[in-house]
Amino acid sequence: MLIRFLFIYLSMFVVNSCAQTDSNQKQINMLKIGDIAPAINSIDQNGEQITLEQFKGKKIVLYFYPKDMTPGCTIQSCNLRDNYQKLLDNGYIVLGCSADSPVKHLQFIAKYELPFPLIADESKEVLKAYGVWGLKKFMGREYMGISRTTFVIDEEGIIVDIITNVKTKGHTRQILK
User: Fold this and answer.
1) Which residues, including other chains, have CB under 8 Å from residue 59's CB and lie 6 or more apart?
2) Which are the contacts of 33, defined by CB distance < 8 A and separation ≥ 6?
3) What helix, strand, coil percent values describe the chain, rounded to 5?
4) From the DSSP assignment, how many helices (H) and strands (E) are in the chain?
5) Per-residue pLDDT tens over the stretch 32-81
6) Average model confidence (pLDDT) for the chain?
7) Are strands 149-153 and 159-163 parallel, antiparallel or unpaired?
8) Which terminal residue of the chain, N or C, has fewer Cβ atoms less than 10 Å from its own Cβ?
9) Is residue 166 classed exposed, middle or buried when 0-12, 13-18 and 19+ CB atoms within 10 A define those classes?
10) Any idea where the domains of the chain sit in the sequence?
11) Annotated catalytic residue, options 18, 73, 78, 97
12) Rounded to 5 degrees, what angle do the CA atoms 153, 159, 162 make?
């Protein structure tokens, strides 16, 4: 019995140590204001190639959200939709990104009349490059998922703002502050 207890205790210690190491590594790999935005080579809701390079010379709002058709993601996307002209008037291109499929993105766009493209990152390459894919906790449960984050990128491809505490109902205000 004592040996079993020690084994469980040591196992928990090793798991916690590994989790702290992974957490520390994630912090080291996190993007910062002033960094060059990682390249994007993915597809949009229509299955067409989408890259950051095609928007060179324009300011970009790149928002990462967990899942199409969920309450918070819908509120956030609709806030950007409702203020889309204001964002355009300030020189911004808006791009959304989640791990949903192009078909799911098409349904989301159609249902909520979103005027901007959504990147379908099923491989999670873009999510990982931007450091938004990782361990999350909700109600005591741990799982891998997307951290709601927005990157504002200037005309030269430099990250000028990172919004991690996204207010879904007032997201445009956060971007234009």
Assistant:
1) 90, 91, 92, 93, 152, 153, 154, 155
2) 159, 160, 161, 162
3) 40, 25, 30
4) 6, 9
5) 999 999 999 999 999 999 999 999 999 999 999 999 999 999 999 999 99
6) 87
7) antiparallel
8) N
9) buried
10) 1-30, 34-176
11) 73
12) 95
- Tally Cβ neighbours within 10 Å of residue 128: 14
Residue 163: name the closest of 91, 65, 25 by CA: 65
Q: How far is CA 12 from the centre of its chain?
A: 31
What's the CA gap between 56 and 144, in Å, rounded? 32
Q: Is 73 a catalytic residue?
A: yes
Separation in Å, CA 55 to CA 32, 133, 149: 21, 24, 20
Residue 49: count of CB within 10 angstroms of its CB: 11
Residue 29 confidence class, pLDDT cut points 50, 70, 90:
low
pTM over 0.90: no
- Pairwise CA distance, residues 177 & 164, whole Å: 15
Burial class of residue 107 in the structure, from the number of CB atoms within 10 Å of its CB (0-12 exposed, 13-18 middle, 19+ buried): middle
Cα separation, 45 vs 104, whole angstroms: 8
CATH code given to domain 34-176: 3.40.30.10
Using the structure block, give the residue that is written with the tokens 């205790």. 9
